[in-house]
Amino acid sequence: MKRVKEFIKRETVLTAAFLLAALSMVFVSPDRAYGGYVDYQTIALLFCLMAVMAGFQKLGIFSYIGRELLGRVRTGRQAAAVLVGLGMRKLSMGRAFVAQTKKMITGMTISRAREIACKVCDMETAAEIQEYLTSELRDIL
Asked: Which secondary-structure segment (H or E) carries 23?
């Protein structure tokens, strides 16, 4: 029983998917056409995508990209501007930074944040990024 509980905690999504699939069988009774409901090409494509992402993760590519992008900014405001520009819509931060970050985010459009993120991605040095972000965010704050 302890192993089952550990498995459920470790594989929450799989467990939920299994339970919901079993529940759906109550509403749609299994028959010979059940096999046709599954799009095997899409499942194979998703499996391959997951395998590639797992490989990238094991190689540390995502960590490297994150360190490269965020390692070049010096303040939380700058990091928030870059993250919003890269598509992040939920940010986690300490209470002391919420008001200032909210002011910075509401002071720019999504397209402006994307433009800032694209420019930062093309820059070579941390000093260059620091100078650019300081000048761009000065108008907002």
From this structure: helix 12-27
Using one digit for the tens of pLDDT, what is the confidence trace for 102-134? 777 777 787 888 788 888 878 888 788 888 888
10-67-90-9 Cα dihedral, nearest 10 degrees = 0
Structural contact between residues 121 and 109, judged by C-beta atoms closer than 8 angstroms: no
Residue 113, pLDDT score:
80
Buried-exposed string 44-65: b where 16+ CB fall within 10 A, e elsewhere: eeeeeeeeeeeeeeeeeeeeee
- SS3 of residue 140 by DSSP: coil
Structure tokens at 107: 């002071």
Closest of 75, 91, 85, 77 to residue 120, by C-alpha: 85
pLDDT at 96: 79
Instruction: State which residues of the chain have pLDDT below 50.
Output: none
DSSP string, 38-101: S-HHHHHHHHHHHHHHHHHHHHTHHHHHHHHHHTT--SHHHHHHHHHHTT-------HHHHHHH
Cβ–Cβ < 8 Å for 57, 50 = no
